[in-house]
């Protein structure tokens, strides 16, 4: 059965880092989503996201979409189906609302990987080091933007505490091995 590793978690927890590692080490590509937010230093159009204008975003058909501040994000069923034509296991980064939508629709195909750290201080330090604007960091690490795992999704999630990258790599190897053999 084709599988989707659905990755969610707070900003700075390492979702992008993990998805890039899955692609590079295990040939598990990430299904790209669309956003209207500005490109960050180091990001590459059509590799990090499909970057859209408000107008181009409004013309797309999404399986689910959300708004963060004044920016939109959305993912399509079509992109997932296309990715599954070439790879049995793929990954997708979404927020908690997006994760709930995918779990409701295709739960049996989803491995829900909730990535976090042992403290918010670690998140803030990583985002500062990444060069994020300190005011934006405050927004990202508060309220619904923090992407806390709600009780209703705790039973569906594999929680990965990404404090130590070597431990994370070992845990990912175990997860991928079990997905390939299930
Ligand atoms: N285990 C780790 N130890 C130290 N630094 C890490 C670790 N994992 C990721 N990082 C670093 O933390 C920063 C944030 O990681 P990343 O961009 O992957 O987070 P994210 O969850 O995708 O964040 P966002 O949702 O804001 O895009 C990056 O600079 C990354 O290199
Ligand atoms: N529900 C969805 N959430 C998405 C999608 N693409 C990204 N995201 C999530 O948005 C926030 C902010 O992302 P950032 O790149 O600006 O830091 C983060 O939680 C992502 O996981 C999507 O298509 N649908």
Automatic annotation (TrEMBL):
A Pfam family hit: Guanylate_kin
Catalytic activity: GMP + ATP = GDP + ADP
MF GO annotations: GMP kinase activity
GO cellular component: cytosol
Sequence intervals crossing the membrane: none
Domain of life per record: Bacteria
PROSITE patterns, per database record: GUANYLATE_KINASE_2
Guanylate kinase-like domain boundaries: 2-177
Alphabetically ordered keywords of this record: Kinase, Transferase
Function: Essential for recycling GMP and indirectly, cGMP.
Family statement drawn from the similarity comment of this UniProt entry: Belongs to the guanylate kinase family.
PANTHER family recorded: GUANYLATE KINASE (PTHR23117:SF13), GUANYLATE KINASE-RELATED (PTHR23117)
Protein name: AAA family ATPase
Species name: Lactobacillus helsingborgensis
Lineage, broadest ranks: Bacteria, Bacillati, Bacillota, Bacilli, Lactobacillales
């Amino acid at each position: 059965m084709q599988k989707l590793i659905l990755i969610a978690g707070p900003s700075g927890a390492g979702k992008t880092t993990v998805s890039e590692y899955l692609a590079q080490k295990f040939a598990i590509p990430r299904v790209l989503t669309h956003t209207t937010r500005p490109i960050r230093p180091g990001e590459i159009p059509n590799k990090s996201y499909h970057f859209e204008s408000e107008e181009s975003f409004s013309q797309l058909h999404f399986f689910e979409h959300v708004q963060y501040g004044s920016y939109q994000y959305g993912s399509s069923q079509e992109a997932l189906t296309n990715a599954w034509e070439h790879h049995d296991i793929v990954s997708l980064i979404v927020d908690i609302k997006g994760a709930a939508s995918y779990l409701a629709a295709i739960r049996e195909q989803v491995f829900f990987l909730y990535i976090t750290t042992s403290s918010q201080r670690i998140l803030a330090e990583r985002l500062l080091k990444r060069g994020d604007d300190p005011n934006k960091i405050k927004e990202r690490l508060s309220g619904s933007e923090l992407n806390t795992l709600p009780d209703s999704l705790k039973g569906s999630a594999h929680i990965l505490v990404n404090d130590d990258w070597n431990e994370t790599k070992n845990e990912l190897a175990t997860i991928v091995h079990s997905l390939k053999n299930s």
